[in-house]
Amino acid sequence: MASKRSIAEVDRPEPSAGPAAKRRRKDAALPLTSDPSRPPPFQQPHQLLSFSYTSLPAPDDARQRVRTLEWNNSSMRYLVPPPPSADLAYGYERWIKRPEERGRLDGLLEACLRKECEAERARASVVTWRGVVTKILTSPYEDRDGYDINVMCVDGTLYLEEHLSDEKLREKSNLTGKHRLMTYYGYAFESYCTADTPPDSRTSKGGSASPGWGGDVDTNVQWCSVVKTKLGNARMILGGEVDCVRDRHTGQPDTFVELKTSMAIRPGNRNDESKFEKKLLKFYFQSFLLGVPEVIVGFRTPSGHLQTLQSFKTMDIPRNVRGKAGAWDPSACLTWATHVFEFLHKQTAHYDASERAVWRVTFTPRVGLSMHQLDHDDVGDVTGGEDRVGFLPQWYWDRLKQHPSSAPKAGNPNENVPAPTATTGSIVAEEPAPRSDLAPNNNTSARVSTGKVHGWQI
């Protein structure tokens, strides 16, 4: 990582331009920083609501599926023990894969306008999907893959959308052979580990050639949680998919479980260990941001058979890498993210919302962020011929203009908002007390750790 440097701004206003153009910074940069010594406080995520995406036959062609948003928990799944040596290639030929598309915020924005979220939305300084913030947080340790984010600022709230070019969408859509199969392994693992009813109420359904199979994979189906949280001064509303719950859903994230797969680590192979430890960075922040307390990893053989399971308590994951060569430090990630949000607010703060400005933020590994305002043609590409203002749906924009927010937005450096009083680097809200009713059942083949990491031999 680069050493700490200041924000660099490039391309100053044109002297002959009008008032709006005089405010315009055509380009700006935020060099990558490494400053883990004073991590900002992070507020424990609190769920505002949850919703489901379901999959229905298309009206004009039953062979096609239509993804539908429903304001219920119909797509929620329960954690169940997978069978020993499960075949993760099972059902591959029946995989219903949702077409790759732009990372629109539409479902999350619909949630923001519901009564459960609207008050928090008016106070939020950042609204986006969990995956976007995960990319930002893990940037200090990303040395291979860059990314692009589209940014709009309306009434002091930053809206962030991952930008996928047509070329990138084609690349994601055209996965073939081994890469496509390995992608499927993760979805198959979720099917083996989840059911639509709690473990104690399940009865054998039969009819599957693979014992323990939870149903064929359809990636149109998702269960999503919307949470409020706060990083430093930045109040955030984040949405993200949740794989399953342990035993029951309490209305909060305390029983959420994240499911992951990884290649089995060969005994004594430091290279295998190092690769997995790097994966743990993403596993950690994906769960951390939604308040998911538990991550279960299925280690597989090269041929795609489940070998062992391991459960990680999310808040303990950094301890698994601490002190090792090339180890990542979550404090550096949190500090970097606060710099990013302050940078984005600073660059967008002086624009009237009527300008409908859209910015493109580009991350270059080991370098940092660059940012520029999109011109008319590029905004047209973002809109994609749809009824939108930038990437925001027209119906959402209209609602914001009818009911503009005047609430101060923490995280905006131009607002005089007091900083949180929590201890630096701590979780603001208290963690839920350990619950005895969440202990694993004695009649299951899997056991989940409540502290140190334990392996499940299956």
Structure commentary:
The protein has 458 residues and is α+β, with helices and mostly antiparallel strands. It has ten helices and 20 strands. An eleven-stranded mixed beta sheet has the order 1-2-17-16-7-8-6-11-10-3-4, sandwiched between helices. Strands 12-13-14-15-20 form a five-stranded mixed beta sheet. Helix 4 packs across helix 7 (270-290) and helix 4 (130-138) packs across helix 8 (330-348). The protein is globular, with a radius of gyration of 23 Å.
Quick overview of this protein structure:
The protein has helices at 19-22, 106-112, 118-123, 130-138, 166-173, 177-193, 270-290, 330-348, 376-383, 394-402; strands at residues 8-10, 27-31, 42-58, 61-70, 78-79, 126-129, 147-154, 157-162, 194-195, 222-231, 234-241, 244-245, 256-263, 294-300, 306-313, 359-364, 368-373, 388-389, 392-393, 454-457.
Fraction of residues in H or I helices: 10-25%
List the helices and strands in order.
EHEEEEHHEHEEHHEEEEEHEEHEEHEEHE
- SS strand fraction: 25-35%
Please give the radius of gyration in angstroms. Answer: 23 Å
Q: Please give the order of strands in the largest beta sheet.
A: 1-2-17-16-7-8-6-11-10-3-4
Tell me the distance between the termini: 40 Å
Main structural class: alpha+beta
Shape: globular
Low-confidence stretches: 1-25, 416-458
What's the main sheet like?
Answer: 11 strands, mixed
Report mean pLDDT, rounded to a whole number. 84
Number of strands: 20
Structure annotation, total helices? 10
Name its key features.
disordered C terminus, alpha+beta, disordered N terminus, 458 residues, globular, eleven-stranded mixed beta sheet, single chain
